[in-house]
Amino acid sequence: MKKKINELSESTVDEGQLETLKSTKDELAESEIAIADYTSRDKSYEMYRFICLSIIAIAPIIAIALSDVEITPTAPIGLITKLTGSNTQNNTRPGIEWMINIGGVQNDHYSAGIQVPVNVFIFGIGGAYLRYLYKTATEIRGRGPQGREDKSLTEQKK
Question: Shortest CA distance to 79 belongs to which of 106, 101, 112?
Answer without folding.
Answer: 101
